[in-house]
Design goal:
Elements lengths: L2 E7 L3 E8 L4 E8 L6 H10 L10 E6 L3 E2 L2 E3 L6 E3 H7 L5 E5 H8 L8 E5 L9 E6 L3 E9 L2 E7 L11 H11 L13 H15 L11 H10 L3 H25 L5 E4 L1 H5 L2 H4 L2 H7 L5 H4 L4 E4 L4 H15 L1
Parallel strand pairs: 1-4, 4-8, 10-13, 13-14
Antiparallel strand pairs: 1-2, 2-3, 5-6, 6-7, 9-14, 10-11, 11-12
Helix pairs in contact: 3-12, 5-6, 5-7, 6-7, 7-10
Length: 323
Amino acid sequence: MQTLLAADIGGTKTLLQLSSVDGEVLFNQRYASSEFASFEDLLAGFLNNLPADYLPIDAACLAVAGPITGRTAKVTNLPWQIDADVLCQIMPLQQVMLINDFAAVGEGIACLNPDDLMLLQAGKPDLLAPRAVIGAGTGLGQAFMTPISRGWQVWATEGGHTDFAPADALQQQLLDFLLQQYVHVSYERLVSGMGLVNIYQFLCDLQQTASQLESTIDIPAQISELARLNDPLARQTMQLFVDIYGAQAGNLALTVMPRGGLYLAGGIASKNQPLFTDGRFMQAFLAKGRMQTLLEDIPVYLIRSSETGLRGAALLAQKALYN
């Protein structure tokens, strides 16, 4: 039996999916990435639990949260190095391709159903124009897509590491606070899980308030939950986070001009949808002075699905088998 492997490898979680060539999902597994010393250890555990007739796997596509250099990748928020050629040598894999995780999200957008999307701004869609995607999770991913004769060419970027630019006096204080800790303050330092923690700590310091968080529990998730319970400090944290997120999404939109649509991905947005639908995110997105009317023409969507990158990786694994 021919089989395909798709992986979405991130600093917090890794998703693995085995499927047949016709798209039937055979196995689906989620792992906490930090529990493994290497991706090889994680993958070996997954493969050891598969029936023998599913091996070797004919094609694998690994979507990695980090830069890809040739046939190797480095996970940005983990000490994992991944070498596609080494994996083919030591694992029952016939071929392996590596792709940036947000390039995989870009590929996966073509697999989404209407129910997977929430419209934030209708704009004036242009089907022949580029698309872009931005998403906060463990880090901040960005990619853009240009139309080709059969679908889309996806271009991965490291735009999440561009310099953070304060939009007001409070954000300037936030930048000053973070410059005491980091040599370089990028948007990822603020628009990500660690960004939520950084903003919360800044507000605690600014207001001389003790943290209410438990260090043994997922801290970004605690902040989100406290905000839902109307804790003032957590709610202010989430609001500031949304302001900065919207501003960087607007920066991406001005850079790429994605009249085909800008897509908001990542777990933080999908798990906190009300914070992105009350108008605050779009207000920050559009706050570009003379360029506001330009951005009003760009369709903006929130992706509800948490497995868009995995879908994109599965699609690419299927294509690799026939190329």
